[in-house]
Specification:
This protein is of the alpha/beta class. The chain has 2 domains: 12-187 and 381-394, Glycogen Phosphorylase B (Rossmann fold, 3-Layer(aba) Sandwich); 190-378, Rossmann fold (3-Layer(aba) Sandwich). Helices cover 40% and strands 17% of the residues. The chain has 17 helices and 13 strands. The strands form 2 sheets. The chain has a 7-stranded parallel beta sheet, with helices on both faces. Helix 9 packs across helix 15 (348-364). The longest helix has 18 residues, at 83-100. The N and C termini lie close together (4 Å).
Length: 397
């Protein structure tokens, strides 16, 4: 499918199906893709976005591009009472497919991908692209269900993943044919990284002095993000004698941005361990870049990932990074002098010790070196990534 030309003077329709438009890494990637299409192919391509669930923080941002956004009425939390709603959602999806007759349906996230497996049943000539974003090692049901559909290669044309490690995972664990997998790295748009509040303003807001040490984590409060591990790291840091001695002059604060189902559980743990002075859960923030700019270290404790956007965002502000060695991270930050990986394969106490060791090292040597990751970020720039997606679409000509 050639994006630069019309077919019989008719604009081509591409339908993007996503589980929800809540604020997250996948939603950001979809936004960047839509923005590029509207800027470069507005006369030749009509993008349509279908969200399975209503509303979401990214909905208005996508609509501001002039993109039509519809939804399939699915509730945020599924229950048996919602079975009727599920049937209605499926019927509406079929209706929108037949109404728009897109040449490509490109889906993101588990539930949307499952729906997209049925697209060719109704429009056999339509090209189907499924985006796998995370190595869902813990979600056995999801793996079994997607593996069942992936064993039927006639149902889909391409599977888009965001890292080489995730490519290996979907081939091995989800039965995807290797020749159907395309690696497209996550996008980082430097023009989108707008600072609205100064470093001083953010630190004052958090009760931090100039020389205090801020360790930032960003992500929804979900088991996947490993915040129970983060709390254990905070406990260990609190009891480190060398840090204790130095922290009389410079306090250490862990800051977590994000909301989610585990909030009460995590806050209870903080209370039980007496960590109020060491960690703050500050909820959702519209502009996380103010906080990345103000932090001293970016910390990722995820138990599984695909290729987390926040790593690229932290690198864009030249921040030191300490991260669990999860899918997609190693190929971005390995061998960078101010970035450290911690294996999760060791015993839990050793994992905590290793995180603590790197944080302590950066705390003690924080003024030593300035970081520059621009050479790593280059392949993630909008133009370079969009070219790969265009090439994938154009294979369908």
């Amino acid at each position: 499918m050639n994006l630069t030309s019309k077919s019989n003077n008719i604009s081509k329709k591409i339908m993007y199906v996503i589980t929800s438009l809540n604020y997250g890494g996948t939603q950001k990637q979809l936004y960047y893709l839509l923005k590029s299409i509207k800027e470069n192919y507005c006369e030749n391509v009509i993008p349509i976005v279908i969200s399975l669930k209503k509303n979401g923080l990214m909905k208005e941002k996508i609509k501001s591009l002039g993109v039509v956004v519809d939804n399939l009425f699915l509730q945020e939390k599924f229950s048996l009472l919602n079975c009727l709603a599920l049937a209605v959602s499926m019927l509406k999806y079929i209706y929108l497919l037949l109404l728009n007759r897109p040449c490509i349906v490109h889906s993101f996230l588990f539930q949307a991908n499952i729906l997209n497996f049925f697209t060719k049943v109704f429009i056999p000539e339509c090209r189907v692209i499924l985006s796998e974003r995370v190595a869902e090692k813990e979600k056995k049901f999801n793996l079994k269900l997607t593996s069942f559909f992936y064993k039927k290669p006639s149902l889909y044309d391409k599977v888009m993943v965001n890292s080489q490690e995730l490519k290996k995972f979907v081939i091995k664990e989800q039965n995807v044919l290797e020749e159907k997998v395309v690696v497209v790295e996550n996008i980082i748009d430097l023009q989108d990284l707008i600072i609205e509040k100064t470093e001083t303003e953010i630190r004052e807001q958090l009760g931090l002095k100039k020389d205090d040490f801020m360790i930032l984590s960003i992500g929804r409060l979900h088991k996947q993000k490993g915040y129970d591990l983060l709390i254990e790291i905070v406990r260990k840091i609190k009891n480190e004698q060398e840090i204790k001695k130095l922290s009389r002059e410079a306090n250490i604060l862990f800051v977590v941005i994000g909301d989610g189902e585990e909030k009460k559980v995590l806050e209870r743990k903080v209370c039980n361990y007496g960590l109020f002075d060491y960690i703050k859960f500050i909820g959702y923030k519209k502009n996380v870049y103010d906080y990345i700019n103000a932090c001293d270290i970016f910390l990722l404790t995820s138990l599984w990932e695909g290729s987390p956007n926040v790593i690229l965002e932290a690198m864009s502000f030249n921040k030191p990074i300490v991260s669990s060695e999860v899918c997609g991270v190693k190929e971005i930050i390995e061998n960078l002098s101010s970035c450290f990986l911690v294996s999760l394969e060791d015993r839990r106490d050793i994992v905590v010790d290793n995180f603590t060791k790197y944080i302590k090292m950066l705390f003690l040597n924080r003024f030593d070196k300035k970081n520059d990751y621009s050479f790593v970020l280059k392949k993630h720039f909008v133009g370079n990534v969009i070219k790969k997606i265009e090439q994938m679409y154009e294979e369908f000509s």
